[in-house]
Amino acid sequence: VGIAQSVILNTDQAVLDRFRFWAVGSLQGRGMELTVLLALVTAAAAVAAMLMAPTLDALSLGKEAGRALGAEGRSGWLALAGLIVTLAGTTTAITGPIGFVGLVAAHVARGLTGPVHRRLLPQAMIAGAALVVVADMLGRIVARPGQVEAGIMCALIGAPFFVWLVRSRRVARI
Questions:
Q1: Which of 85, 108, 112, 135 could crosslink 153 through cysteines, CB 3.0-4.6 Å?
Q2: Residue 103 above 50 pLDDT?
Q3: Coil, helix or strand for 26?
Q4: Gap between the Cα atoms of 110 and 72, Å rounded
Q5: Do residues 45 and 125 lie in contact, with contact meaning Cβ atoms separated by under 8 Å?
Q6: What pLDDT was estimated at residue 10?
Q7: Of 20, 5, 2, which Cα lies nearest the Cα of 97?
Q8: What pLDDT, on a 0 to 100 scale, did the predictor assign at position 142?
Q9: d(Cα 100, Cα 25) in Å, to the nearest integer?
Q10: Rounded to an integer, what distance in angstroms lies between the CA atom of residue 41 and that of residue 12?
């Protein structure tokens, strides 16, 4: 945080509170106007991602195999990167930076559905949403009458999952 931002945050308690809640990731206190607009953008990007699932399957096989299957490498990757930025950006704009959601949701979904993206993507979307809702509910329960923000609860769930994931995989030693 720069000096000007520090001065603004430290002189106005309401701004500091809003920044703090956004910085740790929270579902609390979001206006419906912004939420509806970003939900529409997210839904459109999710539909586009589903339409690009065959391209993602082909590109995940490698450059040459993807090209042989008809996936245009550079334009396919650019379109997918745009969708990823749109999906991550809209959800971060609403909730703040909630960590571990993509890691946990993607691995859980892949374990349930396998590598085919037309099945994997919807499962990962559902798993990610479920993780955030469960984290938010747990945060409201464990610190009653207060609340632990969803971002902190996701970190408490996701960090052990990440450790388990790393330890369960054989990693080549250098």
A1: 135
A2: yes
A3: coil
A4: 24
A5: no
A6: 65
A7: 20
A8: 93
A9: 12
A10: 32
